[in-house]
């Protein structure tokens, strides 16, 4: 049996999508861990710490990937899915992104309701902007909407004005 | 038959109309012509569903197709889907009465340009296997009625047919190296073909069995199609929940649907689903044609033009 990580619904082995909530299982069995040479990761880590004036916090131990919100210092673990939508919830809007940035002042930072997605693949994660109003930058470069861009540990992307860093748990890799 | 001779009365009895059409087509049945009934209805039929399905089976066996154009919100889409699917026809939702002429002309022109009207698949599955669902992706996306023969439907002169079959394998016998999911024959006729008109082709779904398989991701095309069918099923589940009076369940399915539609870049459709959710919360029922709009809307996502131009 496959148990949907999002809603707990049980499906037969080989099922591609959860019939309850539509979550994709197809590549869920793959190891989502990203392997990055540790020296490179350290370099990025140091560079980022220098640039932002903050040391990057360690990732939560049980998550392979997490998002570090540079402005607020919060860390959001990415667990259980292979693809995450990023955005912010709004009143009387039933559509919820997987990662809701509303509690982190998403609105003030110019995050769209459905702004971007992060897909976990090997060897990179993929960042896709959904044609958001204020756009997405990756390491300071604006990215074209609806086109996946590979991102790795230490990369900083900006949704509107909200800076987010991708963290890969090196002890897990 | 002159339309003027038909008497208009209250209520809808689809069987009577269908039978008249059937007799008419049957009288001039010819392999050189298109033998097809187009049913136009705006209503639900009462008490004669079984006779209609029986007639559809008979029509199918004789090579007569039935297509349905449903107008407005009252007609029984699931019932007409079954009738159409059993005979290789299609069912369409006509939102506005003023579109009926165009829909009818479109349907006639489609029928005139088919290569073959009905492709059937007579098959058998071993007892360990169950054909769980069948969905035609192209042309005219539609769920297919299960059973042997499985009616795949028509084939346009230009274009392709794509059908997705979902098999459940309950058990693979020990020590086999090859396993058959299904075996059978595909039958079809090309009526105006000069040399040969009736074709039978063997169709085998055989797979090699490995005890130590290499895990492979499914092909993107299949994954995308299954994703869209999953959306269609969500809509179906919402509709089933509503049928049982489970408003909370129904709105949950629809919210999930809207989320996925939005992430696919189908903003308009997502918005329309969200509006429907709000309506259901207020009124505890679907809006007038909301249910059908969503059903045929999610089905239309599978159309090739749509899948090519997708925004995400």
Average pLDDT number of chain A: 78
| Helix and strand sequence of chain B | HEHEHEHEEEEEEEHHHHH
Q: Kindly state the percentage of residues in helix of chain B.
A: 40-55%
Give the largest interface: A-B, 25 and 29 residues
CATH architecture of the largest domain in chain A: Sandwich
CATH architecture of the largest domain in chain B: 3-Layer(aba) Sandwich
User: What is the CATH H-level superfamily of the largest domain in chain B?
Assistant: von Willebrand factor, type A domain
Main sheet: strand order of chain B = 7-4-9-10
Task: Offer a concise description of the structure.
Chain A has 173 residues and is mainly β. Chain A is 9% helix and 28% strand.
Describe this structure in words.
The complex is a heterodimer of chains A (173) and B (312). Helix content of chain A is 9%, strand content 28%. Chain A has one helix at 38-52, and strands at residues 2-3, 10-11, 65-69, 75-78, 83-87, 99-100, 116-120, 125-129, 136-138, 141-142, 149-151, 156-159, 162-168. The radius of gyration of chain A is 16 Å and the shape is globular. Chain B has three domains: 10-112, Rossmann fold (3-Layer(aba) Sandwich), CATH 3.40.50; 119-208, no CATH class; 220-307, no CATH class. Chain B has helices at 14-27, 49-61, 77-87, 100-112, 220-243, 247-263, 267-283, 290-300, 304-308; strands at residues 36-41, 65-71, 91-94, 114-124, 129-138, 142-143, 150-156, 162-169, 178-189, 198-208. In chain B, helix 6 runs antiparallel to helix 7 (267-283). Chain B is globular, with a radius of gyration of 21 Å. Chains A and B meet through loops of A and helix 5, helix 6 and helix 7 of B.
């Amino acid at each position: 049996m496959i148990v949907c990580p999002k809603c707990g619904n049980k499906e037969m082995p080989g099922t591609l999508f959860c019939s309850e909530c539509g979550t994709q299982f197809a590549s869920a069995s793959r190891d989502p861990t990203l392997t990055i040479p540790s020296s490179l990761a350290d370099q990025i880590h140091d560079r980022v710490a220098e640039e932002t004036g903050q040391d990057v916090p360690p990732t939560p131990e049980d998550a392979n990937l997490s998002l570090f919100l540079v402005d607020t210092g919060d860390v959001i673990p990415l667990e259980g899915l292979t693809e995450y939508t990023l955005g912010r919830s709004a009143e009387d809007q039933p559509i919820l992104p997987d990662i809701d940035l509303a509690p982190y002042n998403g609105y003030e930072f110019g995050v769209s309701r459905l702004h971007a997605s992060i897909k976990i693949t090997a060897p990179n994660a993929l960042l896709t902007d959904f044609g958001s109003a204020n756009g997405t930058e990756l390491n300071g470069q604006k990215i074209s909407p609806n086109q996946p861009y590979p991102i790795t540990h230490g990369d900083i992307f900006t949704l509107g004005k909200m800076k987010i860093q991708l963290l890969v748990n090196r002890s897990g890799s | 038959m002159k339309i003027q001779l038909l008497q208009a009365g209250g209520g809808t009895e689809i069987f009577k109309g269908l039978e008249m059409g059937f007799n008419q087509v049957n009288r001039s049945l010819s392999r050189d012509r298109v033998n097809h009934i187009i049913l136009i209805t705006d209503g639900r039929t009462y008490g004669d569903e079984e006779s209609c399905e029986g007639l559809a089976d008979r029509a199918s066996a004789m090579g007569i197709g039935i297509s349905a154009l449903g107008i407005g919100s009252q007609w029984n889409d699931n019932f007409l889907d079954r009738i159409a699917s059993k005979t290789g026809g299609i069912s369409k939702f006509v939102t506005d009465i003023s579109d009926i002429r165009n829909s009818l002309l479109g349907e006639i022109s489609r029928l005139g340009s088919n290569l073959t009207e009905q492709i059937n698949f007579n098959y058998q599955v071993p007892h360990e296997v169950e054909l769980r669902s069948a969905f035609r992706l192209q042309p005219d996306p539609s769920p297919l009625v299960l059973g042997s023969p499985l009616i795949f439907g028509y084939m346009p002169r230009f274009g392709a047919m794509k059908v997705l079959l979902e098999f459940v394998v309950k058990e693979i016998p020990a020590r086999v190296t090859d396993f058959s999911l299904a075996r059978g024959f595909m039958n079809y006729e090309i009526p105006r073909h000069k040399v040969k008109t009736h074709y039978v082709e063997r169709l085998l779904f055989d797979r090699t069995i490995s005890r130590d398989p290499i895990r492979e991701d499914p092909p993107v095309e299949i994954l995308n199609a299954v994703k869209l069918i999953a959306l269609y099923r969500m809509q179906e589940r919402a509709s089933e929940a509503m049928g049982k009076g489970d408003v909370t369940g129904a709105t949950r399915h629809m919210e999930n649907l809207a989320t996925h539609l939005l992430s696919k870049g189908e903003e308009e459709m997502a918005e329309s689903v969200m509006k429907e959710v709000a309506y259901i919360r207020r009124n505890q029922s679907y809006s007038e044609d909301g249910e059908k709009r969503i059903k045929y809307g999610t089905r239309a996502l599978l159309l090739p033009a749509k899948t090519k131009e997708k925004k995400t």
